[in-house]
Write the structure tokens for this entry.
Amino acid sequence: MNIAEIAKMAGVSSAAVSRYFNNGYISEEKRQAIKKVVDETGYRPSAQAQTLRTKKTKMIGVILPRINSPAMGSVVSGILNILDQNDYRLLLANTQNNLKKEIEYLEFFSDKQVDGIIFAATVFTGKHKKILKNLRIPIVIVGQKLPGYHCIYNDDYHAAYDLTKLMIEQGRTKLAYIGVSELDEAAGLERHTGFLSAAKEAGLDEVDQRYEIAAFTIESGYEKTKELMEMYPDTNGIVCATDYIAVGAMKYLAEHGIRVPEEVMVAGHGDSDMSQVTTPGLTTVHFAYEKNGILAARMILDMISGKEQDIKEMKLDYSLIVRDSTKEK
């Protein structure tokens, strides 16, 4: 079937049917007549034909560093919420923390395979910046701040600062930090800097030395806690860049008879489901990851439609979730 046949069966013009499928204005009477025929026949317009006519694919490319991250899952949920409401589809690229794959997907999507890109970035190399500069389609960056681009990111610095201050206020003066690579400016550099600022304001010593860099895994958190405790056995508080690292830290401490929080307090970032089921419950930072996705999707659709012209940088707030891992008994 084609549009002309649908129009004939519905008793309307072909132009009315075209407006129906392209969300244009038609009277409610005509809309219902066309909908009845469409429902009865199961007709669907050709996606390829629509793309050729409108120059729009109705697709948004989303590039993630890892699909198994609870945070990324929440971001994608927020994106889908908005895209579904606007009849857009999502094309997901999981790079598995491989910077080369990020470059490949940026190049692939930039070749007009999608109408826009939402990029959950971790590290910006020179090659990343070159590709971003030459992009011919809109892009929104989530989770990192990059001047000159539309960005939605979290207040990682103050989140880590407040988490560290929480431990200091409870008399913990031998603090250690387990972070991630500082090439990742948000989860790596900003969170570590926030920790250092709070510790040094309180006059704590050795905080620069009591520092390990882990991967985003429980296993790595376990190993780095082992190294810290062997080198600094008097450590009485550990701030971790992620919940997964913090869970690894708690696992090591439990296996070695070190009580949490009585002997060592532990805290993470992310407020993942896992933080709620540990024993004791894990103190953490709640970031509005789903809101990140919602705002990014709205922003990219506004850019595609021409509504969003000026560069926007949006920093979202956070909240401390205080559980038993940092509560004095």
